Hints:
By secondary structure, this protein is an alpha/beta fold. Helices cover 42% and strands 18% of the residues.
Amino acid sequence: MATTALDPFKLIDIENATEEQALVLEDITKQFELSTQKITEIVQHYVGEMHKGLEKNNHTLAMIPSFVIGKPTGKEVGTVLAMDLGGTNFRVCLMEFKENTEINIKQQKYRVPDEFKTGKVNMLFDYIADCVDKFLQEIGYEKKNGILDLGFTFSFPVQQTAIDKGTLLHWTKGFEAEGAVGEDIVKLMQGSLNRRQIPARVVALINDTVGTLLAHAYKRHTDALIGVILGTGTNGAYFEKISHIKKLGTFQSKSEEMIVNMEWGAFDLERKILPITMFDNKLDRESLNPRAQLFEKLISGMYLGEIVRNIILYLIDRDLLFKCVHFDYSTFKEINKQWAFDTVWVSTIEADQSSNLDDTKIVFEKYLNIYSTSLTDRQIVKKVCQIVGIRSARLGAAGLAGVISHRGAIKTGCSIGIDGSLFEFYPNFEQRLKSTFHEVFGSDAENIHLELTRDGSGVGAALAAILAVKHA
Length: 472
Ligand code: ADP
Ligand code: MG
């Protein structure tokens, strides 16, 4: 790879490194390196895994049919509700789609108290219904105006059997409400809405990747192909030909395409193709879900800081880092803690262009109580952040390139809607994706368009509701 000033893969030079520091760093760098050849192999493997997942259930790449059929045209009109459950806040919006892609949005956020996350599921959904009730009252919606169609973004693992039917496989993210696993989420939610006599009908259940793709397709309906999340976690959804989704059997539709939620975080759990380092293995072993979500653990915001921390600990233990730091019982107390190294700092350190690496110094002093680091220490840490960040972007690009290859979309061109802080804020992330596409596709990579797409759970869910009614 040529190393020009603009090269997003250029690694920092470390001044005054000892021979041993240089050797060990070179070895670690190699472990994180993905050659063009390796990327190409990963892309091919990804395509093969897509095929297997489309053929049968319970494959590593789950390739879950979303039952969202047809593409937004950008000409949708109508008023629908959207709800989003899956994080700290529950969100409800009323969306009025006007002509010329103008959308009038009214929305409100409500905190989900912990006692509802872990109590009986009816309590949780009744609470949500109460929030919707309050919201409709606040905005002055009257029942006589009719029953509103509702799109529900529910970002938990769901086995979907229709656009408005899906059973919860298991809770994640601190939710543990009793009586939901194995039950149809739409039925439970509708039951609560009915009990409160709320004029709303759940017509679409989707997850955040599907919503991201829909919101993106609304703006770029002609060539939208993939929706991706690059935030706390990572996942992707894309438009697939229904005839390719073999496991759907005799499913019939007038439309040719359906969105498939790949659940790509689980890619290569068998460890056949991804190069896994000892730093990744430590993270995985100590995680809440060992041996699960391998691809996600190499890419997403939740994990990058922890990988960097693991490398730093290794270097400290080999006596190759922070040698000048005054060392007493509390020096490494902070950095010894699991998850102590925030991915935001990896981002800050990569962005630090000062010759003295002042921002990097601040990270160690302010957040980790490690003082008097040397410039060489900081340069080493910056290099560590770079190799972890570069690998993340290159693997994300490999997954995306797999989808593009599989759909034969490189010549015609395609666009990808991306949501998440990693893509939005991590330095060079976009350039690294693009450069990797160039290695895979040559100059045809110019045909791939990337766009930040923020409102999957609002606009996306509302569009899912509109499409569901249209294709019912
Ligand atoms: P979510 O995926 O939960 O909807 P985000 O898209 O905001 O939320 O992603 C949050 C993740 O992104 C966290 O893991 C956080 O560490 C990481 N993150 C937040 N800000 C930045 C940043 N400036 N640079 C890199 N990563 C960031
Ligand atoms: Mg998000």
